[in-house]
Amino acid sequence: MSNDILLQLDKILDARKTESPETSYVASLYEKGLDKILKKVGEEATETVMAAKDAEYTQNNDNLVYEVADLWFHTLILLSHQGLSSTDITNELQKRFGLSGHEEKANRSKNDA
Known about the structure:
CATH topology: Helix Hairpins
Largest sheet: none
Family: Belongs to the PRA-PH family.
GO molecular function: ATP binding; phosphoribosyl-ATP diphosphatase activity
CATH class: Mainly Alpha
EC number: 3.6.1.31
Number of strands: 0
Pathway: Amino-acid biosynthesis; L-histidine biosynthesis; L-histidine from 5-phospho-alpha-D-ribose 1-diphosphate: step 2/9
Radius of gyration: 16 Å
Distance between the termini: 35 Å
Number of helices: 6
Strand content: under 5%
CATH superfamily: MazG-like
Oligomer: single chain
Order of helices and strands: HHHHHH
Organism: Hydrogenovibrio crunogenus (strain DSM 25203 / XCL-2) (Thiomicrospira crunogena)
Structural class: mainly alpha
CATH architecture: Orthogonal Bundle
């Protein structure tokens, strides 16, 4: 997925904040608030885990890709609701690029102390 599609989604999700919850699924989630959005992210995460297990057994990743797309989409809704965007995440990933996972975790632990 190119970053362009993420930026396009950011704009659309931001625009949905002013749309009617009766006509926009995303607007309805915003209206219901953080707990509803978190519930959807949790549901999508669970469905992603189940799809990954199924994919390992069936050797077919189609449903896994579908579920990860749902998870990403709902995570983008969460970010937008919190006043963040995909750019915040890609910037964080860029900061971590080139670090080993162990090094990144050690740096995180130092910052949390």
